[in-house]
Amino acid sequence: STIFVMGALLPVTICFMNLQHINGRQSVFLEKALPDFIMRNAKPFVILLIAANIVSAFGIARVRFVSDLADISLRDSAALRLQQVLSEKIGRDKMPLFIVYKGKASEDSAFDTMEAALRAWKDSGLIGGYNSLSALMPPPSRQKEAIAGIAEIPVDAVERTFVSALDKYGFVVTEKNLAYIKGIKNALLSKEPVSIAGLISSGNKKADYFYKSGKLAAYIYPTGVNWSQVELDKVRQAAPSIGKGDSGWFVTGWPLLSGELKGVIIRESLAAAVISGVIILALVYFHFRRPKKIFLSIMPLISSMVVTLGVMGYAGIGFNYINMASIAILLGIGIDYGVYMMQAANEMDGATDNGGLARSAYRNIIICALTTIAGFGSLITVSFKGISSLAWIINIGVAANMIMAASLFLVIKRQVQPTAKG
User: Mind listing the pLDDT tens digit for each residue in 198-255?
Assistant: First the structure.
């Protein structure tokens, strides 16, 4: 709803401003008061901007790439809630990897193979721990060992021993006691291990965490707080060898995918920013031609990018898979303000009303920036955190660009026209 309201409000605001000019009325604040204030205090503004850039430069080192799903997903995400519930159920709060089997071997045979491999991985220090079906029942091989161990126990003696013990201590034998004894006898008489199919048919809902639609899975956890790249590489290499030639084994999970995605996103986003920067620089060159004018045109953009990154660092706003695109977007939006100021400085050469041209340039930059901020500002309210963070970065960048361009206008003007009087 915010997007629709802002989308409707922007053209109404612009039309209102245009009507003011048609009717001969002007915004005193934008047309005169604010520009005059900036021009009267140009030197303090420039000093403050230099200080802001120096301070911001130290904040850039704090900017991080955030790959945690919680920082880019929907607010109050059902998937993340499910992950939290799962973590609580199995007693782990670290981000797991998933060892999955979907092959030709039976699920019970795969369960045995998986359990042996996971125990070996844990004993060797490759992983910090794991959760598998063994949390609900022993693997078939262990069950067979237990069955062989209790084969010599006389079943009939169990009932006699249990009942005599109850009598000895004055307990009355009830139907509940007899049912319990019967269950023990049935377990002792069983000669076959409980299968995965049997566990599922018993109605144990926790089994769905480890077996679903023919896929057997286990959750493995790092030795430390997070997975290191070395651990990820070792697990990735070890997973296919679990079944000794069985191609049905594979490892997956967000820690593994995020590392691959992170590298691709960073490389391609930076490549896009470089391409954008080269094209923008070429266009500015073809328009102004002179190196001094080109540098002065891009100076507000460079300064504002430093401030934007610094603010991100101090505010704890990190880059993620979505907002990495903000770099190229800010380059495309931000160059406008420096170009506006340079063009205004050029037009003042020989003009009779330099003050009027300067005020008009200030007004155009401020209105352009405010409408851009209003448009992207509506995205801050969306539920998707990745898009919301993109809007925050662009708004910070546009605001910084507006302030830089407006504050540096007299510097630009004096460099272009050293003897001009404003």
Answer: 888 888 888 888 988 788 999 999 988 778 888 888 988 888 888 777 888 988 888 8
pTM above 0.85, yes or no: no
Cα radius of gyration (the chain) = 35
Q: What's the gap between Cα 422 and its chain centre?
A: 49
DSSP code of residue 362: H
3-state secondary structure 278-326: HHHHHHHHHHHCCHHHHHHHHHHHHHHHHHHHHHHHHHCCCECCCHHHH
For residue 33 the two structure tokens come to 């008061």
| Helix, strand, coil percentages in the chain from 3-state DSSP, rounded to 5 | 70, 5, 25
Rounded CA separation 55/263 (Å)? 29
Q: Give the C-alpha separation, 12 to 9, whole Å.
A: 5
Is the four-CA dihedral 310, 314, 315, 316 of positive or negative sign? positive
Structure tokens at 385: 């955190």
Phi and psi at residue 389, in whole multiples of 5°?
Answer: -70, -35
Interatomic CA distance for residues 49 and 36, integer angstroms:
18
- Using an 8 Å Cβ cutoff, are 354 and 422 in contact? yes
pLDDT per residue over 55-66, tens digit each? 999 999 999 888
